[in-house]
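tool=predict chain=A
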Amino acid sequence: MISKLHYISQGNTPQEHLENIYRMCSAGANWIQLRLKNESFGTVLKTAKAAKEICDNFKVKLIINDFPEVVRQMDACGVHLGKEDSCPLEARKLLGSKKIIGGTANTLKDCLILIQKQVDYVGLGPFRFTTTKKNLSPVLGVEGYPELMGNLLQSGSTVPVIAIGGIMPADIPALVHCGVHGVAISGGLTSHRQPEKMFQEIFNQFSEIQL
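tool=predict ok
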């Protein structure tokens, strides 16, 4: 089951990523993506092992950004692949059918390619401008999602779409109504003084809208 709320880790150092992952697990997260950029394979593997210990203690799913081999070595739940990363089909050969594979998309074409390559979910964005990610793709905004999601539904796809990019709780009703399965949040949760309240608000919104 793909979560309605993905926390994407942040931090200036691997240790800060781990501290934030612990905070979010304590606050009610059920899905964590470890996203370490510009670090060596060894550092990512070491940090991923520590993150898995935290997530296992809280019974939280851990996804690793960019590194299928790290997932294989430390038995994380899956991998999220950016547009410039490994092919999902290659990751599937390495990881097998039981691991979760997600991919990043910005256009309908991106989505359809990922779906053809049998990803388990699509991370679609950015919703709005965010400083979390360098080389940001064109912003989709409130206007971009309904048309794109409508075209995806017409194609017959049932692959869950996760909206990402500067999303706040107030954005969720509009996103859910156009067919988005869930949201991924990084900075909004990391900087929140009481992330447990934000988790609860978001989970409640999904529950209420989909009743």
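Residues 7 and 185 are 5 Å apart (CA to CA). The two ends are 18 Å apart (CA to CA).
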